[in-house]
Structure formats: structure tokens, C-alpha cells
Amino acid sequence: MQHRADGQLSIPLREADAGARLDRFLAERIGLSRSDARRLLAEGLVLLDGRVRGYADKGLALPPRGVVQVRDARGRRDLQVREPSASSGSERDAGPGLAPLRELARGPGWLVVDKPAGWPVHPLRADETGTVLNAVAARHPEIRGVGDEGGLRSGVVHRLDVDTSGVLVLATDDVQFARLRAAFREHRVEKVYRALVAGHPGEDLAPASGEWGPETELVLAVARHRPAQVRVVDDAWRRRRPGHPARQRLRVVERFARASLVEVQIITGFLHQIRVTLAHHGHPVLGDALYGHALYGDGTTLASAARRQMLHAARLRFEEIAAESPDPDDLRTLVDALRAAES
User: Fold this and answer.
1) Domain 9-79 and domain 95-185 have a common topology
2) Minimal CA–CA distance to 278: which of 268, 258, 264, 295?
3) Concatenated DSSP letters for 1-31?
4) Could you tell me which CATH number the domain at 95-185 has?
5) What is the C-alpha to C-alpha distance for residues 79 and 11, in angstroms, rounded to an integer?
6) Of 12, 26, 107, 180, which one's alpha carbon is 20 to 30 angstroms from that of 113?
7) Quick one: pLDDT at residue 33?
8) pLDDT tens digits for 162-173?
9) Which CATH architecture has domain 9-79?
10) Residue extents of the structural domains in the chain
11) What pTM was computed for the model?
12) Which residues contact 222 (CB under 8 A, 6 or more apart)?
């Protein structure tokens, strides 16, 4: 379990690792964020028993025996194998729904859960475990097959990024699925996110009074698939192909020396919308390795201060559905650290 001369790490699997997701195993055993673990997979730097595993294998359930290897092709020597935690391995991932998943609200044909950071919303393959949908289906088997996509996306009416936490709505019958999908598609669902961002948004985005700022609009397009990346596009780009208008409002909850706690009200919704638009305005979400590595205070990168993007789906409301998720522990801890630095 150490670097070879060529910088390759080798991690023997144990019985307790059986069923663990490959990306989660990598993150926990070599001290990476889930996003960074997936980046290693996307770059072809991970092998299982000598066979290269790619991005599509991120949810692969590990066998009870074998060796996971990480190539250090970029010359890094900072990757170190960690001792497995007591909660890792099959206790968490051997079967669907074994890890705790908190319900925030429930009604006829619908369910709102508090999605933990690091959990994909749904599997991409039949053998993938450790997703929100796996856990929900274990408790609510009626969700299986619900919706026009069925199967691997049963009951999923909207999604959150893997490393984004918070309020997530699912439908457990087809009538509510159609109703809720229409509401999200037509932008009739009120959604508010909380985020820690680099710097201080200006008056053009959010007034100093803490009130909601003006509605802003940017046009987005997918620049890359697997792993996905989105960018802001200009008029010249839009003349050649369509874009996706992204509209939202911002308010500042608390300002720190070089960062701000903000809330974002989504008016439209598109992949990575909050992350890419805030980065475009010069205020990337802390810990967002994809859209910005701003510096904080003593020169350490934000990625080292925040192990994942500090973005949390805090509140959601639509007709009789209303749910609120408190800030998760990692977000609260970082906010407390920023406050302490001010004193």
C-alpha cells in the first residue's frame, strides 16, 4: 500500500470492501473528494486487477478480493493510502438503502428527501449501488418503474449534482410524476440554494442590505460530456446553435474577509447553473474544482478548505409540497471557521 518507483499506488481489497462504490472507495482510501476520484477515472488512471476502469465505472460495486491501483501519471506524489474508516465498505454499500436517508416531507404519490453530498441521485447501470434512488426504492418499492424513463431513473423528477446536498423530490406514482415533471419544466417550483462563494458579490448582483438582487440571465451550453462541463456562451455562439437561458436571483446572507455566504433563487434550471454562473461573475463556489480555484486568505486553495463544492439545496416549495433542509455539517463547519477568522 505504497508508491512504486513510477508513482503507482496499490490498495488490496478486503472482504469489508465488497459492494462499495469504486469512486467512494477511492475518495475515502486516498483522501480525495468524490469529484477528484471521478477525475482519476475519467483520465484512465485507475485499474482494478490490472484492467483500466473509466468514468462509466464510478458506481461499480467492488469485489471482496483484488487490487485497486492508481497510476500517478501526472507526477503527483501527494496521494497517500488511508486506513479504512469503520463506516466504509459493505456496511454502507453492500445493498441499497443501508445508509441513512432522511425524509423531509411526504404526500400521496410524492416524497422529499435530504440528499447527502457525495450521493448520485440515480444509478447509471443496473449493478450500481449507493445512490439516492437505491435507498428510496428499498423503503418505497412502489417507486420502481414510475415515470416515462422508468428503470434506472424511476420516479426521478429533478436532479442535484453528486456533490450538492439538500432537498430532492421524487414521485412514487405516475400521476404525480407527470405533474411534478411539468412543474419543474415550466419553472413553477420555487427553489432556494445556499452557497459559500469566493469574494463579495457586487451591488449589480446583490444589494448590501441583504435583500434579493435583480434577476440576472446568462445563456449556457454543455461544453463537454462525461464528465459534464457547462459554459456561458455569447451571441456569436447562439447564432450557430441554441443555448439555455439561466435566470436566477442572489442575496448575501453573511460576508467574511474573502468569502460570502449567499442564497440563490433559481428561476430556470440547467445543469451546473449556479456553479457556472457564479464562477462567471467572479465568485466561484468554495471547493468547486471544476469551475474555479480561487484563493482564500493565507494562500491555500479553496479546494483544501472545502472537500466538495459548498452548495446546498436549502428550500423547495410547490403547491402543497414544502420542504427545508438545514445546512449540512461540512457547510456549517466552514462557516464557523470563517467567522472565527474574523474575530
Assistant:
1) no
2) 264
3) ----TT--EEEE--GGGTT-BHHHHHHHHHT
4) 3.30.2350.10
5) 12
6) 26
7) 72
8) 999 999 999 999
9) Roll (3.10)
10) 9-79, 95-185, 190-342
11) 0.74
12) 228, 229, 230, 271
